Amino acid sequence: MKNTNNRYVGIIFVILGASFWGIGGTAAGYLFEMANINVNWYVSTRLIISGLLLLGVQVMLTGRKKVFTIWKDSKKRIPLIIFSLFGMLLVQYSYMASIEAGNAAVATLLQYLAPVYIILWLIFRGLQRLQVLDIIAIFLTVLGTLLLLTNGSFNGLSVSGIAIVWGIISGISLTFYTLYARNLLGFYSSVTVVGWAMLIAGVCMNIVHPVWRVETHDWSLSTFIVLGFTIIFGTTLAFWMFIKSLEYLEAKETTLLGTVEPLTAVVSSVIWLNLPFGTWQVVGMILILVLVVCLSLTKKEL
Hints:
There is one protein chain. By secondary structure, the chain is mainly alpha-helical. Helix content is 78%, strand content 0%. The protein has one domain. The protein has helices at residues 2-34, 39-62, 64-68, 74-101, 104-111, 114-124, 132-150, 161-185, 190-208, 221-245, 251-257, 260-272, 279-297. α4 (74-101) packs across α9 (190-208) and α7 runs antiparallel to α13 (279-297). The longest helix is centred in the first third of the chain and has 33 residues, at 2-34. The chain is globular, with a radius of gyration of 19 Å.
């Protein structure tokens, strides 16, 4: 019963985390378009603040010594830095850069090919064999996300080459982020790992665009509120919950369940930004929900 309960905890964490990330993506699009916020400043600021928030909470809960213990472990310092730069920073920046260069639909579609990359990587490494459920999961992931974001038409997906490149990098970096994190979670808490990764990534990004180089005199109250939401819910909680789910679920299972992210991104866009919602998008939403339900009810590994 304990393992079953842990599994459901992991499912709840990944669905909530992906939902916060999806809504946060819509909110970020609002900030780029309506408030003309620079993407480099945005990534720097959200990472630094989120990292400090997580580490601050962890210090209050467990004490300063446990939070800094990871830096005393010579075998984990380098992996943490690698995870911070090629996982946390790259997945954050590439996704936002793809949105800025193209649009959120293409960026999300390309990022959520990550479950396919993970399954193919595990098969390539000989860690598992291709199973029927894998094929079904890949099919539902690609088709459901495609329909959800395009409504069955590719006319709206005409974007620059750089947007596609950043989108592909986003998917690959999400794959690395998911697989590599497990090397650290076996030794340190998810809050500590994510907190330090965000802070390290933010400090590095700060070199590109310092957080203090920003004009806020023409920002409205809604801009500050939306920015706060994207930092606390769309970044801090979203990434912590996603990483936390890896303690209970397999890596490919986590990313497959994470396909609720484009679903929440589209739904929040319809409600918030009054975007139209077509028939094929409903079909795509249903496919993703079927995938989530099937994975939730399957107790064994896919």
